Amino acid sequence: MPSGNPFTHSFIQPVNTLNELNEMNKQKPNHTVMTNSEDYRNKPLEKADIALYKKVDEILWNDWDPIGVKPDSRGEYYGYLPMVFRLVKANVSEGEITAHLYGKETGHMGLDGSIERCRRVAAKLLEAARNDEIN
């Protein structure tokens, strides 16, 4: 494993790059990794990126949870995490993140979806990114 500042999560092994996160997520059943951006592939994550990645993970788990698996299945949304992180890092609009999350709910998951929940989560994700830039 490359040296540096590993992202460590209590449920997964330490990793240093989004490519490693993607590979790890591919090994989980029923999860599809939706991104492998050349901008991040095999590039060591900076300390701030690791912190933001953790925040994105927590927001998806605590605030999004469209299928209502909390608190039982902590890794349920890991497959969505790399793409949402990439969108947040790319500083896309709240509407684009909302549309992405809503598309996952209604398309990939086959749910009725909640555009309002997706909008609240998108706003919170972008706020976390802004706060991360300030610190």
3D structure, described in words:
- The protein has 135 residues and is mainly alpha-helical.
- The chain has one domain (17-134).
- Helices cover 53% and strands 5% of the residues.
- It contains five helices and two strands, in the order ββααααα.
- A two-stranded antiparallel sheet has the order 1-2.
- A hairpin with a 2-residue loop joins strand 1 (7-9) and strand 2 (12-15).
- The chain is globular.
- The two termini are 28 Å apart.
- 28% of the residues are buried.
List keywords for this structure.
single chain, 135 residues, mainly alpha, two-stranded antiparallel sheet, 5 helices, 2 strands, 5% strand, globular
Integer-rounded radius of gyration: 14 Å
Number of strands: 2
Please tell me the overall pLDDT. 75
Note the overall shape.
globular
Specify the helix fraction band. Answer: 40-55%
Share of residues in strands: 5-15%
SSE pattern, N- to C-terminal: EEHHHHH
- Euclidean distance between termini CA atoms: 28 Å
> Strand arrangement, largest sheet?
1-2
Q: Strand count, sense and closure of the main sheet?
A: 2 strands, antiparallel
Note the total helix count.
5
Structural class of the secondary structure composition? Answer: mainly alpha
- The low-confidence runs, each spanning 5 or more residues with pLDDT under 50, are 1-15, 27-38
Number of domain units: 1
